[in-house]
Specification:
Strand content of chain A: under 5%
CATH topology of the largest domain in chain C: MetI-like fold
Main location (chain A): membrane
Number of domains of chain C: 2
Number of strands of chain C: 0
Number of helices of chain C: 14
CATH superfamily of the largest domain in chain C: MetI-like
Shape of chain C: globular
Radius of gyration of chain A: 25 Å
Strand order of the largest sheet of chain A: 1-2
CATH architecture of the largest domain in chain C: Orthogonal Bundle
Protein name (chain A): Binding-protein-dependent transporters inner membrane component
Largest interface: A-C, 113 and 100 residues
Distance between the termini of chain C: 22 Å
Largest sheet of chain C: none
Oligomer: heterotrimer
CATH architecture of the largest domain in chain A: Orthogonal Bundle
CATH superfamily of the largest domain in chain A: MetI-like
Radius of gyration of chain C: 26 Å
Distance between the termini of chain A: 11 Å
Family (chain A): Belongs to the binding-protein-dependent transport system permease family.
Membrane topology (chain A): Multi-pass membrane protein
Subcellular location (chain A): Cell membrane
Largest sheet of chain A: 2 strands, antiparallel
Chains: A mainly alpha (314), B alpha+beta (363), C mainly alpha (298)
Structural class of chain C: mainly alpha
């Protein structure tokens, strides 16, 4: 706040002196420029959340315009549902598994990229490519590669004895979840790389030179120079990844639709199923509200870890 | 055209601190064809004044008129002024030619006429061969010429300069000064030139207005403000090296006045009557370093030599005295010696007296 | 920074003489690990892409009957790309293009104006507004999509591509507006002032002076919106339930779901086509992209 006002003091209009109410011509024009954004947000973010809270208090059969007010019973239903708790557990598993894999792989790629003397451009391009391939294409290729007839990964896996020759791995109780995590991580690990790489490149060479002169080994340089410098950024990346993964719907749904037998039914999948397959829109909205609460907690942590006003001041 | 600034005040609201009075009841007139320089230390309100004249800022109180037209509330688009910015502000995505003709294009001047105007201005500024280049490929001095050209082609009714040379090196400044003067003569409109550089002000202006802390201190010709400063601020700000000041007392005997600086006494051309109210009281004595001579300790203020700054044609020598460090302009061959005792001799006819509290010049 | 390393040094030199490997060996091992990792990552990332390309150009019958690591000249064909000429797939692709183009237009237009306003006007609660915007990072399509389904169907936006464009634009806003805001702040205000003094109106100045200089940010925002829209499955699945209006991702998944569609050769061909645009854009506009990321991660 402070820096903003100081910076523009020299150019302030007297209109702002006149209009003590804060709604002088300049402020009006300012608000007018951001009004479309506010409208969009109201329309697509604020209203739906409010609506979800509202709808969660009713029994809403999707194809029937008659809503029945049921108070908090949808929430009671959600909280007493076995499938809710199991999908919360599976969601947590998916979230933690994905975040850990993506963090490790993403960080590893970033470190390798940062250290390479040759082929750096090539590997950067390759890594970015994974991020740029649309999710649906990742899924289609994965489905093809796990195809029981000609899937290359299916054949590889069954040859190694991981699964049976006629077993569709993505439809297998044991393998579905780990494979969904891995397929997702193929695309999203690079997110961590991108976040970290900028920070890694910002570490001045002289730090390493100074350490080398002191006789530090590579591991010591990593532990004492690199790691402390990227911890902050890693924290943010982990937080964002965890939040995104907790809410991940597309890749899971496209790969397994939550199956087999609910083995990959995370909370978003359960909510979607409840609304559109079980026709229980009220309960689905109650789940959406629960997810929103998780999001809000994530958002709160995000703002604590990553003070946006600090960004304003830069 | 004549620009009249009447009782102009500009107050900024500051959320953290008190309100800031950037310009305080400034009244100033810029005659047609006059080159007026507004000079002062940074934060003195000179740029705010210029921005109010340009219409980029609006005074909190007071009026600005061009001839008889009140322009105080007019937006910059309707003022027909030209402004040269400190950061030059050429549009980086337009060629030099596009930059120069932009104002004409806005005014709806047809293409061939625009080309003609641009060619004329470019010839005058000796940038005719640069017209198809992009601004980023030009040197700072050339960029400033383009910016001048951009203003020139519009034939404005008031020409404003906001420290246009402060980012240029000394050599370029000297090179550009005559160019600026030629251009402004060519247009022949009132010119308001803002700078913190007193040398620029002295060399270019018809008249100089010195501001400090939002208030106008003095306005006059360069010679006038140099030789007859109205107060110690102007005395110190104008002239290089800055005027030296000594705390002293006025003594009178038989109707003639003298000031004593510590042990040393300087007799003044003024009579005691002229110094009414200050006799037997404190005053500040101001002397320009050019008017201080070096002599024996017996002849003047006792001084110890600190260092010399040889400039080639003259030397600035710094001495330590009981009044603090004093700069003296000495001969080019002067070579001070820390072991020797010197005396600083003030040229009695060139001393100026200032009120020790208000700083206003007494005599 | 070097203080902790200095304190470690003595213990290091102590052990080095005895049990540890020589410097050369360790260095060789390190480089082996480094380039080994690089090769591993390249292989893991590139193989699926290679596999997609290879099979896209392989006769569709061969794809589902024979397995081969390398393409063989007899089975190479362009026939699979015929999938774009008939059936439901071309409609999905066109719908995706329409939605993506719409999202880019809306995001760039709105964020440009908003970013300009935030950079140039002083108004109260501006910073709070910016923080509120960042909350958008936290929006998830599924949480918003569920309620939006009924809202959109109430106001007739369900199955309308404009409805999807609105939803996708909103979730692109935090990035786009912040980027524009920060970017426009780096353009000196004196350039605009100079144009005003030359007689140009605020609006004209915006077009003549600000917009041309904002190009890198515009490109970065457009790419970002492109990625959001091109990648989207969830919103389209929920908000475009009809087969006519829906985009590629839900469309093709529904085709596969209905069971009738397992011509992997065709699917790989269209997958390849859908992958090419983002790669091309990213390649040709990488400078702008990097600038965008710089502003964002700063």
């Amino acid at each position: 706040m402070a820096s903003e006002t100081v910076e523009s003091t020299a150019t302030t209009d007297r209109r702002s002196v006149r209009g003590r109410l804060g709604l002088d011509g300049e402020a009006l024009r300012g608000w007018a420029t951001v009004a479309p954004v506010i409208l969009l947000y109201l329309f697509v973010a604020v209203t739906p959340v409010a609506f979800a809270i509202y709808a969660s208090l009713f029994e809403v059969p999707l194809l029937n315009p008659n809503w029945t007010f049921t108070g908090l019973s949808n929430y009671v239903e959600v909280l007493t549902m076995n499938s809710f708790w199991s999908s919360l557990w599976l969601g947590a598993l998916f979230m933690i598994g994905s975040t850990v894999v993506q963090l490790l792989v993403g960080l590893w790629i970033a470190l390798v990229l940062n250290q390479l003397d040759r082929g750096q451009r090539f590997l950067t391009a390759v890594a970015f490519t994974a991020y740029l391939v649309p999710t649906v294409i990742v899924v289609l290729v994965a489905l093809f590669m796990f195809d029981v007839e000609v899937g290359v990964l299916h054949i590889a896996g069954s040859t190694l004895g991981l699964w049976g020759e006629r077993t569709f791995a993505l439809g297998d109780q044991t393998w579905a979840m780990p494979l969904v995590v891995l397929v997702g991580s193929w695309k999203f690990s690079i997110f961590v790389t991108i976040f970290t790489l900028a920070q890694l490149r910002a570490i001045p060479d002289r730090f390493y030179e100074a350490a080398k002169i002191c006789g530090a080994s590579r591991w010591e340089m990593f532990r004492d120079i690199t790691l402390p410098r990227i911890t902050g950024v890693l924290l943010i990346a982990v937080l964002l990844r965890a939040v995104f993964m907790f809410n991940k719907f597309d890749i899971i749904w496209m790969l397994t639709e939550g199956g087999p037998a609910g083995a990959t039914t995370t909370l978003p999948i359960l909510a979607y199923r409840t609304a559109f397959l079980h026709n229980d829109y009220g309960v689905a909205n109650a789940m959406a509200v629960v997810m929103f609460v998780f999001l809000a907690i994530g958002a709160y942590c995000y703002f604590r870890a990553f003070d946006p006003t600090a960004e304003v001041n830069t | 055209m004549t620009v009249h600034i009447d009782n102009m005040t500009r107050v900024f609201d500051s959320p953290n601190a008190d309100r800031i009075v950037a310009v305080d009841e400034l009244s100033l007139t810029i005659e047609d064809g006059e080159f007026l320089t507004l000079v002062g230390p940074s934060g003195c309100g000179k740029t705010t004044t210029l921005r109010c004249v340009a219409g980029l800022d609006t005074p909190t109180a007071g009026t600005i008129r061009v001839d008889d037209r009140d322009v105080t509330e007019l937006p910059p688009q309707q003022r027909d002024v030209a402004l040269l910015f400190q950061d030059i502000a050429l549009y980086p995505h337009m060629s030099v030619r596009k930059n120069m003709e932009y104002g004409l294009k806005i005014a709806g001047v047809p293409e061939d006429e625009r080309r003609e105007h641009v060619a004329e201005a470019a010839a005058l500024l000796q940038i005719g061969d640069q017209l198809d280049k992009m601004p980023a490929s030009l040197s700072g001095g050339q960029q400033q010429r383009v910016a001048l050209g951009r203003s020139l082609v519009r034939d404005p009714s008031v020409f404003l300069f906001d420290e246009p040379m402060s980012d240029l090196d000394a050599k370029l400044k000297r090179e550009l000064r005559p160019v600026v003067q030629r251009i402004t003569d060519e247009i022949g409109c009132p010119v308001l030139y803002v700078t913190h550089d007193q040398e620029e002000a002295m060399t270019m202006s018809d008249r100089i207005a010195i501001m400090d802390d939002g208030e106008l201190q003095q306005a006059g010709s360069p010679k006038n403000v140099y030789s007859e400063p109205t107060n110690d601020f102007v005395g110190e700000f104008i002239g290089q090296p800055a005027m030296e000041f000594f705390d002293a007392r006025v003594e009178s005997a038989n109707g003639t006045a003298a000031v004593s600086l510590g042990e040393h006494t300087v007799s003044l051309p003024a009579t005691a009557a002229e110094l009414e109210g200050y006799v037997d009281g404190p005053v500040r004595v101001g002397v320009r370093p050019q008017q201080i001579g070096i002599g024996d300790p017996a002849e003047g203020i006792e001084a110890e030599h600190v260092l010399d700054e040889p400039l080639g044609d003259e030397t600035h020598s710094i001495f330590e005295t009981e009044f603090g460090d004093v700069t003296v302009v000495t001969h080019a061959d002067f070579d001070g010696d820390a072991e020797t005792d010197y005396g600083l001799v003030l040229d009695e006819s060139a001393t100026q007296l200032f009120d020790p509290d208000s700083g206003v010049r007494i005599h | 920074m070097s203080t902790p390393t200095e304190t470690e040094t003595p213990s290091e030199t102590e052990t080095e003489g005895g049990t540890q490997l020589s410097y050369e060996t360790r260095d060789r091992l390190y480089h082996l690990a480094l380039y080994g990792s690089a090769a591993l990552f390249s292989a893991v990332i590139l193989f699926p892409i290679y596999w997609m390309i290879q099979n896209a150009f392989t006769d569709s019958q061969t794809v589902i009957t024979e397995f081969s690591w390398l393409p063989s000249p007899e089975t190479v064909t362009l026939d699979n790309f015929g999938v774009l000429a008939a059936g439901a797939v071309p409609r999905y692709v066109i719908n995706t293009i329409v939605v993506t183009a719409g999202t880019i237009a809306v995001v760039v237009g709105i964020s440009l104006v908003a970013g300009y306003g935030m950079a140039r006007f002083r108004f109260r609660y501006k910073e709070s507004f910016a923080q509120f915007l960042l909350l958008g990072y936290m929006f998830s399509p599924i949480v918003l999509g569920l309620p939006l389904y009924l809202i959109w169907s109430e106001i007739g936006l369900l199955n309308a591509q404009i409805g999807l464009v609105i939803a996708l634009s909103s979730i692109s806003m935090p990035f786009a507006v912040w980027l524009m805001w920060k970017y426009i702040q780096t353009i000196p205000e004196s350039m605009e002032e100079s144009a005003w003094i030359a007689g140009a109106s605020r609006w004209r100045t915006f077009w003549d002076v600000v917009v041309p200089q904002t190009k890198p940010a515009i490109v970065a925002c457009a790419l970002f919106a492109f990625a959001i829209a091109w990648n989207d499955f969830t919103f389209a699945q929920i908000l475009l339930p009809s087969q006519e209006s829906t985009t590629f991702a839900p469309g093709i998944m529904r085709l596969i779901d209905q069971g009738g569609y397992t011509s992997w050769g065709d699917i790989m061909a269209v997958s390849l086509l859908m992958t090419v645009p983002p790669l091309l854009f990213a390649y040709f506009l990488q400078e702008y992209l990097l600038k965008g990321f710089e502003v964002r991660t700063r």
